[in-house]
Request: fold
Amino acid sequence: AASGHVSQAGGDERRHDSASASRMMLLTILCALALQGLAKPLQVFVSGAGGQTGQAVFRKMLARPNDFRPRGVVRSQASKDALVQSGVPANFVVIADVTDRHAVQEAMSGCDAVVICTSAKPAPTGETDEATGRPKFGFPNGQPELVDWVGQKNQIDAAESNAHVVICSSMGGTDPSNMLNSLGRTVNADGSAEGGNILLWKRKAEKYLIDSGRPYTIVHPGGLLNEPGGKRQLVVGVDDETAGTESRVVPREDVAEVLMQALLLPKVYQGRSFDLRAKPEGDGPPTTDFERLLSHLDGRNCDYSLGKIA
Reply:
C-alpha cells in the first residue's frame, strides 16, 4: 500500500511538472506574440516610387510587411495608375510633387523614416551642340536646382527630427567638371551659365541633411545597371575612389537593397555617407552580409570639403 501511495504521488508530481512546463511554454509564446505586436512595421516615405530605383525600394519593402509599411510617393496620377495596375495596393501609393512643400508635409505625416529616390531626369532636346557635335540634354520635368535641391530639402524638412533619412544620390560629386553637371546647362550671351549642375545640387541637399542633425544615410551609386541584384560582390568607398574594383557600375536592385538595409541596420548605417559599386558578376562572392559591408570603410565617410557645392 505504501509503495502504491509513493507511485501515485510520483505520478501526480510528474503531471504537475508537465502542466507547469506547458503553462511556461504557453506564457513564452504569448510573450513572444506580444513583443511581435509591439514591433510595428516601420512607416517609410519612399519618394520616386514611380521611377526605377525608387520603385525597386518600394517593392522590396512591400514584400516585407513585418518590417515595413511603405508609402510610395509618385508625381502624377498616371504613375500611381501604373503601380496599381501592376498589383500594388492603391492605398500604399500617394501622389505628391516633392517641389511642393505643403504636399510633401501632408504625404509624409506619420512616417518614421524617409528614403529619397527623386532626381531630375535628363532627356535629349532634339538639338545638337555645335561645338561638340553631341546631342543636347534638358530636364523637361524640372531642373536639378528645383528637384535635387528644393525637392530634397522639402523632404528633409518634412521629416521628424528623429526620422532616419536615406538619400540615393550619385558618384562623381567630388569633381565639379563631371560630365553630368553639363547636362541641361545653357550659356548665355554674356558668358554666364544657368541650369544643370545636377551633382552640385545633390551635394547641397546631402550637406543640408547632415547639418540638419537628423539620422542619415547617403549612398552614392556608380552607373546604374538594369540587371538582377544579388549576383555581384558590392564594393563601398568614399570620395569617388576606385579601390577595390575598376568597375564603376552597380545594379539598381543592389542599390535598392542597400537603401532598405540601411533602415534594417540603423546602428551600422546611420551617420554614414559612402559610394557603392559592384564587381563584375563572377568576380567574388555575391554580397549577403550587409552588416559587415561598411566595415571595409574603417569608419570613413565622404568628405564634403572636396569638390564643390552649389
About this structure: The radius of gyration is 25 Å. The mean pLDDT is 91.
